Amino acid sequence: MGDVAAASSDVKTRSRTVRATRPYSPDIRWAAKPRKKKVARTPANSCKNCGSPVRGARNLLCKPCLHASLDVGYKEKQSTQAHEEDKKRYLEEARSFASSLAKVYNDPSAERLFCPDYRPVRGPCACMQKYLVGNGEGRDHRVQSLLPLLHEAQKLCKQKCYNWNEVKRVNGVQTVGLGNGQKHSEQFEQFVAQHRPRLRELRLCERATQRVLFYSNNFLHRCLKTEPNKGRRVQRVKGKAALGRLKTLEEMASETCCQQRCVALARRYATLVEQWRERSQMGQTENRRVLAEMLTPSGPNSTNCYKFISWVTGCSFTTIARVSKQMLLTGGDREPPPHGLKKFWNDKGPLLDGDDGCQQAAP
Q: What gap in Å lies between CA 87 and CA 6, rounded to an integer?
């Protein structure tokens, strides 16, 4: 024992005290250093059925009552409500800014000169307001440069691809063929193709540019049934599926995505994964259905990981998270929510005589 005590004594040097190495002895048991207990930074989720706390981000099953529905959407509802309030406040300020421009320049069309884009994390864009205000100088020149573009775009937006006087009449009703006469004229297409890049160079976002030139996302990216060989009016610069950069099933099977190894589906169920990939490229609605199908859990805590879903469909994690959140709020409904424009027109009702249908541009 004396040797052990001597060996465990401190050895003093010039700079510091060094503890000598302790030799092993079966008769001596050194006390283990106690570990500090981690304190949870956020309160635990509670079960909707019994109210007992359920810890763990992936633990979606309550042990006392075996209820699979947890109150995980409470904070999300709070954040969504706060986001809607901030967005409403920003849009009111933006509209008041545009209304002041319309009064100063005596032009009602200037009420469209604001950016409506607002993101939950990024916040308001306000690119149009920043461009018009600038550093306080040259505001009149910038506003006067956008107003002629806005007037010309509003005029060309109302022109269609046909002459109303030459339209055929069938059973007393004028028919314009496929598309119901909503296709824009060639002059409008050339006008948008000419001035859209110039406005984007001024650091205006896509939503703000649409406010000036009266076009929609469908106008840019939708393939027309009247001209199937023409393709989109602009080339895609994002999206792995559209650019042909997706991994093959053989490459995917050799990769590692997560601990559950979801990529094993590419080897065992290659036909199913190939069908998912083909359906995801058939359109936005079908793509969301595929995401919902891949996010459908096979158990309380088991779903395909985001990385594997992104490799199959080419969608970003943000899009996958939106579909996952929508399924969580609806209790697992795979059908995508109705488009915002459909809800807008249903709430607005049918257009009356004299209404300007160009305020919401058609594809």
A: 73
The 10 Å Cβ neighbour count of residue 60 is 20
Is the per-residue pLDDT at 71 higher than 60?
no
The tokens describing 197, both together, are 């890049």
SS3 content of the chain, % helix, strand, coil (to 5): 50, 5, 45
Minimum mean pLDDT range among 33-47, 92-106, 151-165: 33-47
Dist. CA 38–CA 244, nearest whole Å:
47
Provide Rg for the chain, Cα atoms. 31
Please answer whether residues 147 and 141 qualify as being in contact, where contact means their C-beta atoms are separated by less than 8 angstroms. Answer: no
Strands (E), 13-88: 17-19, 45-46, 53-54
Burial of 199 (0-12, 13-18, 19+ CB in 10 A): buried
Pairing outcome for strands 10-12 and 45-46 = unpaired
What is the average per-residue pLDDT within 26-35?
65
SS3 of 54, please? Answer: strand
Nearest CA to 70 among 87, 84, 86, 56?
56
Place of tokens 């009703």: 173
**pLDDT confidence band for 184 (50 / 70 / 90):** confident
- Residue matched to tokens 């259905």: 289
| Spans of all domains in the chain | 90-162+182-235, 240-338
Looking at per-residue pLDDT, the higher value among 283 and 271 belongs to: 271
Q: Given a cut of 90, is residue 101 above it in pLDDT?
A: yes
Q: How many whole angstroms separate alpha carbon 236 and alpha carbon 247?
A: 19
Higher local confidence (pLDDT), 305 or 353? 305
Neighbours of 306 (CB within 10 A): 21
Whole-angstrom Cα distance, residue 361 to residue 184? Answer: 10
